[in-house]
Request: fold
Amino acid sequence: MKDYIKHDEWCIIEEGFHPEHNEITESLMSLGNGRMGQRGNFEEKYSGHTLQGNYVAGVWFPDKTRVGWWKNGYPNYFAKVINAVNWVGIDVQINGVELDLAKCEIISFTRILNMKNGTLRRLCHVKMENGNELELVSERFCSMAHDEAGVINYAIKPLNFNGDAKLTPYLDGDVSNRDSNHGEKFWEEMDKEAKGSEAYLQVKTKKSPWDTVPQFTVSSGMRLKFYQGKKELHPISLPVKKEKYIGFTYDLPLVSGQQTILQKFAVNLSSENHPAEEHFAIAKEYLNKIYHLGFEVMLGDHTKAWEEKWKSNDIVIKGDVAAQQGIRFNIFHLQQTYTGEDARLNIGPKGFTGEKYGGVTYWDTEAYCLPFYLSTAEQNVARNLLVYRHNHLQKAIENAQLLGFKDGAALYPMVTMNGEECHNEWEITFEEIHRNGAIAYAIFDYINYTGDKNYLAEYGLDVLIGISRFWAQRVNWSEAKCKYVMLGVTGPNEYENNVNNNWYTNLMAQWTLKYTLESIEYVRSTSPERWAEIKSALQFNADLEEDKWEHIIEELYFPEDAERGVFLQQDGFLDKELMEVDEIREHRPINQKWSWDRILRSCFIKQADVLQGMYFLEDQFSTEQLERNFDFYEPMTVHESSLSPCVHTILACKLGRLEKAYEMYVRTARLDIDDYNNDTEDGLHITSMAGTWMAVVKGFGGMRIKNGEVSFAPQLPAGWDSYSFRVKFRGQLKEVNVTKDGHTVKDLK
Amino acid sequence: MKDYIKHDEWCIIEEGFHPEHNEITESLMSLGNGRMGQRGNFEEKYSGHTLQGNYVAGVWFPDKTRVGWWKNGYPNYFAKVINAVNWVGIDVQINGVELDLAKCEIISFTRILNMKNGTLRRLCHVKMENGNELELVSERFCSMAHDEAGVINYAIKPLNFNGDAKLTPYLDGDVSNRDSNHGEKFWEEMDKEAKGSEAYLQVKTKKSPWDTVPQFTVSSGMRLKFYQGKKELHPISLPVKKEKYIGFTYDLPLVSGQQTILQKFAVNLSSENHPAEEHFAIAKEYLNKIYHLGFEVMLGDHTKAWEEKWKSNDIVIKGDVAAQQGIRFNIFHLQQTYTGEDARLNIGPKGFTGEKYGGVTYWDTEAYCLPFYLSTAEQNVARNLLVYRHNHLQKAIENAQLLGFKDGAALYPMVTMNGEECHNEWEITFEEIHRNGAIAYAIFDYINYTGDKNYLAEYGLDVLIGISRFWAQRVNWSEAKCKYVMLGVTGPNEYENNVNNNWYTNLMAQWTLKYTLESIEYVRSTSPERWAEIKSALQFNADLEEDKWEHIIEELYFPEDAERGVFLQQDGFLDKELMEVDEIREHRPINQKWSWDRILRSCFIKQADVLQGMYFLEDQFSTEQLERNFDFYEPMTVHESSLSPCVHTILACKLGRLEKAYEMYVRTARLDIDDYNNDTEDGLHITSMAGTWMAVVKGFGGMRIKNGEVSFAPQLPAGWDSYSFRVKFRGQLKEVNVTKDGHTVKDLK
Reply:
């Protein structure tokens, strides 16, 4: 755990430079606008620890799979979010000496991420090796109003000398991923151009052996403006051209006490959005526009866009600055990562803040992110997340075929970019099939929240049928139990592998079958023509398949312990030595201290999937049942998944255990800011941030949607004076205000 | 399956060149003498498919582990048997054109491995690109009589031209492993020397980051002799020196119809056997000796050594040439791989025939190879195999500590060179712990066969106690079952991973505990002083530990199906859909056609471990029990482990099912010759060859050892006229002869 970030309601502030934590700070201070994003790297060269990262949404590379021991069925590649053109770079030389903060004496330093308007500012006073003292002020943002543009205002002021500065702003596509499987660079140069103070660079991802994987072309452009004080300068541009790189060098005289400003206007275009051959023309026009708008107007537009977002999103907590900062940090990054305007995109586990975990789409999207966007964005945003899976249905059917399933059964991938599986660890890739359940549940969740039942006929039903067909083939009849069983799965609790009858997976399978039958009935009765179309397209044998599903729903096996009155996580769970987490305090985190086999045969739980099931389908269970299961599983849960504590907060709130709920809440809200898991340097835990939001709104706020109505049952944690949050429900923005005296729910606007 | 190898009682014959199978033939025709070995590569350059391989026993490299997803507890490296100096190489130019069989017209070609005397001969008539026709006859062997030496007789005869030959015999250490994890070469040059027609090269394995891993120095020397017809030549030597390479070039005039012979005498010394700084001096002396003995005398000594081996080893089968060839092939390669003279060595899964599977020691050694060497070699050979594990006890204790065990519990590695684990696949490395049982059982097996009960006090008991301590910690008390259970294991049937209560593993654990208690009792009563020593050295708490072990023996859980009267492979086995292998004919081999999860949740068995347990401990079970279990498991067994069919042969013989026994036998005896599994090109299945031997001797021959007596109960497979085999039992060589009229057992000599 780290605590060098200042507590502040709206800002993430590093006061004084912490080079030992620089990669953490770079993650925390990442910027993005849904279309592109970047880590909080310095503009000028930095020779200390840094993970350079610039990302363009939807652009990736199929990095050839590398495993120790190949298992039949592994995918060919692991899709990587790739480090793209560095458009923030500005090399600086002062009197012939390169400016590099790793080599300067730092006299003062502040780096601030302002979450209110999504800007990153840096102010520092340094003394260079040659004794020159310099003040550096930089500010930049990825525009929310013009989402293919970013702007930097970079100012230097000599404090104790006159002299020369050589500034080299550039676009650099000769970048690599730290975690590439074969040490390969993913880009090749297509074109570049430099004229006046404008430059353009076009790069394309390398051709892969897999023809289902597109090549992506990304073009970046920059246009530069200089000021000395208020006066615009027009220095001479000297182009610098290298492989996959273009820049300009400017020689500028420096006068002690006078500020020299370089403004870098940049655009990034992707072939996903514009034909590659038109990129440079579009970029020129785009740059021309924003250049003439200027930095201040651009900043104004950007700030306004953020104000709009906060209006419908903000959660205000009084009396607990750390909690306030934590929740805003989470909301801020979620908004930066996904705006929901493009159904081809999804929410990567690290967003635009790092490379790790490659592909962008996990079950996190449906289980954790969807509820956030349902409540905080326009309806089409959540809908696009669903349509994304709809569009991947054929690939999910092919994926299931690879594993031996047939007749239109669909298994969605564990991790994907374009619908193809790109995870390769058999116990997860092939066995963590509960993801299919979450994808089905998301359809219910969306319709339950929005009332948009037409979604079923339009897009939802074929996905539900594909998934139900999978479940129906994945179970088998056990002669021994005279029940259907589901063998060889890994549940959300990934600290068990290859178990039989994971209660959660069976529950979600059974639920999917029921919901699919209901949905078929609904579409059959409300849109008979559409139903006829679907039935024929899917070659759906209503008699046979529906009967089989009914039978499975009736006869599916669920492990339980009648004596304790609890559901059992899986077959054989009670053969374990049952202990509580408190008994192994000094062994934690067990995923760093124990070998894998020891974790597997212990009773300890990464995230409690029985409780996850009771959270999803709470109406199927009584509060007493929930209480017994919570009391059984919570003490064995180590919460070593960032997705775990939020569900416990919600359930603890339901059980009126506010102290436990709060304990769980703090674990999740400041996970990244305080670097709880020692891995913030790799990037932020974007998807679990949505869980934090849920912990407040569904947990403390007690929001539930039933029969088309939203309700709240707020509770106030002991340390808070009050809190308020806003949610959109069926077109109406509502504000819930909770104080020590009670709560109000207000319709806004 | 391939059938290009001619059936022959004593030879492996490739008639006509099969370049498409060249790597298979190279594997089949490998030579070795326990100290070194090599694949059947051509001496001259070959640009077609070839896997170059020369190996020196006990020399390896710790290749840094490479996995897709790291699991806590994985070892740092995977130990590789490494490709060492190529000492067979002779480059040949004829009239300026390089001799390369891939570029010649092959007029006739024969390659013969003579198993009677361990020589590899090649005779061919080729037409080169320039029209020159050439006869090439080469013969070579790794001397069994002088085990650091090898000799080559390489003769060329121009058939339709006079001209010039340029011969370049060399020693080349600039070689690599095809399967290196990081594309690295493992050797660096230390020294080289060339003088007259003698050359020496010393190479050393690179320094690794792990200080428990030694660096190995290998020195090779060669001395050359030339003849034209019977006349010795003394052509001028021109040294050729390159990095890690030394050779000589000789220009020789060729006369049509006249044979030119190059004899290459070579030695290979390892720092494991001689101090590196003395290598060149020893090599010179050694070369001087064998050079003066000459090729014919060397061949005579070598042939005599093989005669001795066959005298005590041979199995003669009449009426079935394919079976005869198969069994001799297996015996031959086992003898080439391990001679038992050095307790630091062991039996690699590929011996000296390929690189695959890295490290040399698997549980195959104890479960399959030990019985072969017990019956066919001097007692010390088998004893050395046991002492090897004794010497690794401390490492096994450390290995167990890494996984969280304590108080002297020992877990032997899955794969090792020096006692350190070097396998990295969690479901095997950490969970396939039954290997510990086989290592304990080997001690019993050895003592039962030899009567050498002193071995217990000397070496055996501490190993048994270490293993028993492991079992005692590895089980846990299940409150649900009121029994001890063993969770999270992988049995010998590797088509199940991470199961609970694998019957075989539990059986071997229980047996180990019993046998350890008996052994303690024996040593306590017969060597009380030694017992006191052991007890104190191991800090053995007799009261506590023995009581605990008794309790586990009493209360260990064994899954079974009372109704069918069969033991169950593991908990939950009966939840599977039970099918027979016949129903999935077109899906086989399932390890190539099914994804891993499908294999895991199917009932199909790689090797039936319940039957393996009943084979090891046959006296604990009635024939009726065996029959029921055999009939339950055999039809579900796909035998996709080369270690599987031999056990089924033995059990089928016991049940009097000779047809089934024979069906199983042919699967194993010609596995490599006929390339059943499409993988002979990687090298031979050396350890399962011992299983084939067992199938004849313990299966058809019915050999059993009980109470210090050996007995036989021979049966004759329908297609055989007769067979005979020889075994050594407590100093007495016995010959068993089985004909249609009955059998005889004769004491020889």
Observations:
- Chain A has a mean pLDDT of 96.
